[in-house]
User: Fold this.
Amino acid sequence: MKGQLNKQKILIIGGSKYLGLAIAQQASEAGAEVIIGARNLEQASLAAAQLPKASAIPIDIAEESTIAAAASRLGHIDHVVITASAHHNVPVKALEHDKIVAAFEAKVIGPMLLAKHFAPILSPGGSILLFSGVAAWKPAPGYAVMGVTNGAVSFLVSHLAKELAPIRVNAISPGITDSGTWNTLGEQSKKELLEGVAASSLVGRSGTADDIADTAIWLLGAGNVSGETIHVEGGARHV
Assistant:
């Protein structure tokens, strides 16, 4: 993929850790100028310092003023990747209004407002890449908010792709992925989780951050793909 994104300017919101950082690293290797956007500018700056031709910018997907300010400051961009999320995984009887709203702000409302401010500065051949998730296709108790917000992302992609054309809009829908987010479980519990995922996967393994980053880099350069949700979860939604 070296040189695939040569001289292209890519904003990665949530690029300071986990999947966002993996995408930032691969985009940089592919020749892109990477801008890492995050609420925590210090963390974003530390991540950017690891990459050539990278910088950081403050942006909170839940605050429209920061989105507008970032668009004004950047002036021109080729691609935007949004990996932000806010989880509220509880039974329906324990749902909290503000946490539901926060989840929709991260996955749906924020990306819509980002499209509002960034579409005018995106290259005609540019793209917006969002993140859905397998929970949308695998209903489970306690995951209604995650499932509904991730499902909404796929509908959002379709509508934005139509309205913003020729700007391309796509989404990646990962399954449970070893991206670093599960490290808080502890080594043994994480190992058991990933082994369980592998056992129930059609491909016999769990996902990696590189699986997602590979797909992201491909989509950024896939000039004839728009309005699509690409499932990268080993067929988990079919099990």
Observations:
- Residues 36 and 239 are 36 Å apart (CA to CA).
- The two ends are 32 Å apart (CA to CA).
